[in-house]
Write a structure and sequence with these properties.
Layout lengths: L4 E5 L23 H12 L3 E6 L4 H12 L4 E6 L21 H6 L9 E5 L2 E2 L2 H13 L6 E8 L10 E8 L5 E13 L2 E4 L8 E3 L4 E9 L3 H16 L11 H10 L4 E6 L5 E2 L6 H13 L9
Parallel strand pairs: 1-2, 1-4, 2-3, 6-12
Antiparallel strand pairs: 4-11, 5-13, 6-11, 7-8, 7-11, 8-9, 9-10
Length: 304
């Protein structure tokens, strides 16, 4: 059996959070959210992890995250850099924002040659997502065009500290993804949730039970061919419309694959409570949540 790999998107600088949230401790033992994610994946059966980071945080990241993990799992690093662009592409003046999660994932091409799971570095997903994704990847390894995502209830992914962006999903009766759209300006309200398409001028309600993607994906190596073409089109035709902020995002490109019948995406579910540190003000809640999980026996005091 081919063992799947865990891929972690950790190159973002956390502009809204105000620092390197990937390596910000959230308990007295110095663990980060990413440590709990890797621990849960390891417990589910994953034996290899690939970190997508930037060179500028490499030394600190290895010391605080990668090196302790390497005693238990195989560890590799790839680097997402702003200047990793096509030879004939001219860098827009003033561009500092990374090129998006699809660009980040393509940095793994040639390094990841087996089924793999993708997660964000700053999201706590709960244990179930890793278990169901590991089972999916190991049982469908031969089906190169069958992918998966773990969906969460929207209401369990919101913060009271500000707006968030989520991949809002439509699914078929058979449990497959039929459409996904990156919805910005989602907020928690007194009676549920709402979204805005005009930068907060007006809001419309949205069901808190709506399934959303938190970038917990299961892919096969074939995805690199399709995402490579998408990235070529992005640089050739799409950056010009928004040169400073345009991004090539995984949910958007997955939606294109579905529409063009190039892939099927099975929707797996998790009843776990998501939490993360989108904003600095989220940290006390995350700290308290991790402590509660430890007190309940879900984790040992020291993970590794």
């Amino acid at each position: 059996m081919v063992k799947p790999t865990l891929v972690i998107l950790a190159a973002g600088m956390g502009s809204r959070y105000g620092g390197l949230k990937q390596i910000d401790p959230i308990d007295e033992q110095g663990h980060k959210i990413i440590d709990f994610s890797i621990y849960d994946a390891w417990k589910a059966g994953f034996e290899k992890v690939v970190f997508i980071i930037k060179h500028e945080i490499e030394e600190d990241f290895k010391k605080m995250v990668g090196d302790p993990i390497s005693k238990h799992m195989e560890v590799e690093y790839v680097f997402q850099e702003l200047d990793n662009i096509p030879a004939d592409f001219t860098m827009p003046e003033g561009r500092v924002k990374p090129w998006g999660t699809t660009h980040a994932l393509m940095c793994c091409k040639g390094v990841v040659n087996e089924p793999f799971m993708v997660i964000n570095s700053d999201d706590y997903y709960g244990k179930d997502g890793y278990k169901v994704m590991y089972d999916f990847l190991t049982s469908t390894a031969d089906d190169e065009r069958l992918y998966a995502m773990v969906a969460y209830e929207l209401g369990k992914t919101l913060t009271e500290k500000g707006s968030v962006t989520r991949g809002v999903c439509n699914t078929s009766d058979e449990g497959f993804l039929t459409h996904i759209v990156e919805q910005k300006n989602l907020i928690k309200t007194e009676d549920g949730a709402a979204f805005s398409n005009d930068e907060g001028a007006t809001y419309s309600p949205i069901d808190v039970m709506t399934p959303v993607s938190m970038n917990m994906w299961g892919f096969k190596p074939s995805v690199f061919d399709d995402f490579g073409l998408a990235l070529d089109d992005f640089f050739a035709n799409k950056v010009a419309a928004n040169p400073e902020k345009a991004e090539c995002l995984i949910p958007t490109e997955v939606d294109v694959l579905i529409k063009n019948d190039k892939a099927s995406v099975q929707v797996l579910t998790s009843a776990d409570q998501w939490f993360g540190v989108t904003y600095q003000e989220d940290k006390p809640y995350v700290v308290a949540s991790i402590k509660a999980l430890k007190d309940a026996g879900a984790y040992p005091e020291k993970l590794w």
